[in-house]
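#struct-pred

JT: dropping the chains for the assembly here, can someone run the whole complex?
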Amino acid sequence: MTTRPEAWHRSAVIYEVAVHSFQDSNGDGFGDLAGMTKRLDYLEWLGIDAVWLLPIMPSPMRDGGYDVSNLTGVRPEFGTIDDVKAFVADAHSRGIHVLTDFVINHTSDQHPWFQESRQPGSPKRDWYVWSDSPDRYSDARVIFIDAHDSNWAWDETAGAYYWHRFFDHQPDLNFENPEVREAVKDAVRFWLDLGLDGLRLDAVPYLFEEDGTNCENLPGTHAYLKELRAMVDAEYPGTVLLAEANQWPEELLPYFGDDDECHMAFHFPLMPRLFLSLAIGDVAPVDDIIMRTPAPPPNSRWALFLRNHDEVTLEMVTESERAAMIDAYAPDPSMRKNLGIRRRLTPMLGNDRRKIELLNAVLLSLPGAPVIYYGDEIGMGDIHTLNDRDGVRTPMQWDSSASGGWSSADPADFYLPVVATEEYGPTAVNVAAQMSDPESLLSFTRHILQTRHDTPELSEAGYERLEVDSTSVLAYARDSVLVFANFSGQPQSVPANGTILAGNASLAEGSLDLPPLGWAWVRTDEQTP
Ligand code: BGC
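RK: done, full complex below.
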């Protein structure tokens, strides 16, 4: 397949936003699309290429909007269809692309499709996965282990069990049914007709079920995604499909197909290993997973991230690695969720600026499209005592006022509270103060994004591992750009020649001196140091 000029995703830096917490434009305590539009000046200034909106469809909000009660509408608190169009048009005028979440695997139990499906004799019965017994598909793992111990729930009206891979109020759609496959395609068309540039396909590995398997990554799932891609390519060229699949690299690779399935897929196993390597001061975990990661087809990209709106998922590490991470990053049980850690980047890293910069420098220089989680660019904190994963989805802190300037509503009416601690509340952490401080984390972020933009090798070149004489230095070449990252608290020296593009190391006479937790991007004429 030839590379299309529209392949903007290949060099994109994506900014992930919980719309309900970004900017409230009408004073109801709930962030909205008009608020997003107001804040486009900021996003343009920051220098990101695309915005990914968490789900904005109608929803009872029992799972942060991933419980959708109408796949073809906008939750009124977020705004209207026209607000979506206005946001997209304004973003486009600034060269910013817009993706939104599309919850493909399941709906809310409040969706009319499910309400019809559960009625005895309903023509829609087959739209969801029903069974007389809760014993089918017993090899499938339970994902939300804090909430459930089975993927089946009993429905009194239907007189049957329904299948749910997530909460029991989120029944899985039955993709065996051609009507469902078509209805989902129509819903995709609905969103793309609004001018969006891409969809994050939520929870894609679980579309199909089959006895005797773990019900993940099944051939039917890949076949359907290929159909969807063909439709998107034909009807909405340039539109990107981003797969959310918490899987090992070798299971993720098929989601790209032969450049004919999803354009992008999140790299889940890399993320915990970055934190693990930092905790133990040894780059082996990161190095191992990179070596185990196949290159995607030419027009496809990994989507790389440090943190997002969920817990730091620890499914893709061994039990002892998980224990080491819990020990290092989630000493308090309230910081844990399911198999993972519900904390934001900065508190997880002990508010250590060196660690934050180091991980961002690696994130922004590995092959793939980096995804930055809103608020992490200013070092926002979290409230890990809030329900489920809400603690990492609190309001954006724009200024030093007690509400952080995100809403004029009475704080008692805020959908989620603003962080209020001395260390992380708006007085200490806010956009306005950091914008005018050249030494701030925000200024650092903006600057490193600019450097990345000016360094096309970081988007396009392959990955070449460099041998260095230290187990704490991750070293790699992206064509003529060399990256060195010191994951330990001790200074390290490695041989290198060239010019430093970014970082806090010093380079003289063929030696690069990395301070503790230091890093550098170096442009060289040589391929190896
Ligand atoms: C989303 C979660 C959500 C789950 C169920 C995901 O993987 O990222 O936030 O709870 O899907 O929809």
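JT: nice. The longest strand covers residues 97-103. Residues 63-64, 66, 103, 166, 202-203, 244, 309-310 surround beta-D-glucopyranose (CB under 6 Å).
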